[in-house]
Specification:
alpha/beta; Immunoglobulin-like; TIM Barrel; 2 domains; nine-stranded mixed beta sheet; eight-stranded parallel β-barrel; 12 helices; globular
């Protein structure tokens, strides 16, 4: 053969191979798998490469030209009890790495923190301006976050050191007792007066909290005004607050005070269940109040899981956040919890315009606490369980659920369109700021499904076990 022709042929073959390898590298898909039988737990599976044709089975089509909302993150709440059990565990730093490190853990990207006492307390409930009975402090002269400095703030700082992009939402279960009709942290209504001094004091309380945490190097991304304002009990810190009071508080006091103090923390209203949707709707009908409101926060303990979509159709310029749902020891089956959490929360909520999905306690002990001077949930399960007096800890099903979103969907990712609710499959997709595309697919049925996933016109085949979830990260 002519040597020049041989050289040309070899160069052609080499170029073709280079193009093929480059195409496969550019369009590869990383895979994380968790199976309902727990044989795979956020397991890194072999990369997928494009296939020339569709195989048998349903097709999930991802369409990045159809964009919806920007995501802010996935995670759980750091309650007083959660911070305590992590802080005092011999495995503290390992737990924190597993939770918050994007490289070595699941990269939790959004947390809700309790402002003072809640129903999960390792120490007696408190607020940041507790006063002797009969005394008031309208100017917040006695305001202090010192009690948070023992173990609460250190855990938040460590979380931020592991994930500097972590977003933090602050929520109070009760304001100081002197602001309430009951004069107690346990139950009661907000004390309303005609000259607005209590409303102004509560607004200043939020300002002081945000400023105090800022001085600690902690930025508060958003606040809710009152956890579950439609509920009160004498068992733990709670307070009822009508929508009229919350509306007027935002309109006349909190919003203007944030503005005058150059505070850009987002104000979220409501923070309660899907079935009480009239509460935030009534507030937002007042344009003078609505101008200060960034979003509405939802819980899972009542109502229709698709309520945020209905709400979005009425108020398209108001963001939706999902801020609380607890796992329970009374629901012990891994695969059932895996499916429920994804089907109702971590896949479904983003598809109905929610920007964050946040569970209740990020950690608790093996007796669903500690609970000091409170009588709240007796079987709430943490994302991590830290048994009392032990140097071990356990990752619960919720840990893997969060990880299937937080490890592939970056902060500020854009939710994009994907085929959903086909043949027992649920899916949600996101385009990340770096151009990668994340797809999370749940197989709700018992039998294995052969999938065809179409991303950017590239077809990927995957066989997904029954009651299992796969996360895919596509590199264009």
């Amino acid at each position: 053969m002519d040597p020049s022709k041989t050289l040309t042929f070899l160069l052609f073959i080499g170029a073709a191979c280079t193009i093929l390898v480059d195409a496969q590298t550019k369009h590869k898909v990383k895979v994380l798998l968790t199976t309902g039988d727990q044989s795979k737990l956020l397991s890194q599976e072999p990369d997928l490469h494009p296939s020339p044709t569709n195989g048998n089975g349903p097709e999930i089509v991802v369409d990045k030209s159809k964009q919806y909302q920007r995501m802010e993150g996935f995670g759980a709440a750091i309650s007083n009890s959660a911070a305590y059990v992590i802080y005092h565990s011999p495995k503290r730093h390992e737990i924190m790495r597993d939770l918050f490190s994007p490289a070595d853990g699941i990269g939790v990207s959004f947390v809700r923190i309790t402002m003072g006492g809640s129903d999960l307390q390792a120490v007696p409930p408190y607020t940041y301006d507790d006063m002797p009975n009969g005394q008031t402090d309208f100017n917040m002269d006695h305001f202090s976050v010192d009690k948070d400095r023992e173990f609460f703030i250190p855990i938040i700082k460590e979380a931020l050191s592991l994930n500097p992009k972590l977003k933090i939402l602050g929520s109070p279960w009760s304001p100081p007792a002197w602001m309430k009709s009951s004069n107690s942290l346990y139950g009661g209504d907000f004390h309303v007066d005609y000259d607005g001094k209590y409303q102004q004091a509560l607004s200043l309380y939020f300002v002081k909290f945000i400023q105090a945490y800022k001085a600690e190097g902690i930025d508060i991304h958003a606040i809710t005004i009152q956890n579950e304002p439609g509920y009160q009990t004498t068992g733990y810190p709670t307070m009822t607050m009508s929508w009229q009071i919350q509306r007027d508080l935002v309109k006349w006091h909190l919003g203007p005070l944030f503005l005058s103090n150059n505070i850009y923390t987002r104000i979220l209203i409501f923070d309660h269940n899907w079935d009480i949707h009239a509460y935030p709707e009534n507030i937002l009908k007042d344009h003078d109040a609505a101008q200060y409101i960034s979003g509405v926060a939802w819980h899972c303990y009542g109502g229709d899981k698709s309520e945020p979509a209905t709400f979005h159709s009425k108020f398209p310029n108001v963001d939706n956040y999902f801020t609380e749902c607890s796992g329970f020891a009374s629901a012990p089956h891994f695969r059932d919890n895996l499916v429920w959490n994804l089907d109702v929360l971590f896949i479904h909520q983003p598809t109905v315009w929610v920007k964050s999905v946040v569970l209740w306690n990020i950690a608790l002990d093996d007796q669903w606490g500690p609970q000091v001077q409170v009588s709240g949930c007796k079987n709430c399960r943490g994302v991590i369980t830290v048994p009392r007096g032990s140097n071990v800890y356990r990752k619960e099903v919720e840990y893997y659920v969060i990880g299937h979103l937080s490890k592939v969907a970056q902060t500020q990712s854009m939710r994009i369109d994907s085929t959903d609710n086909v043949d027992g499959l649920r899916s949600v997709a996101f385009e990340n700021p770096d151009g990668t595309i994340a797809v999370v697919i749940l197989n709700k049925q018992d039998q294995t499904k052969s999938l065809n996933v179409n991303i950017d016109g590239n077809i990927y085949h995957f066989s997904l076990n029954g009651k299992s979830v796969v996360s895919m990260l596509y590199s264009p």
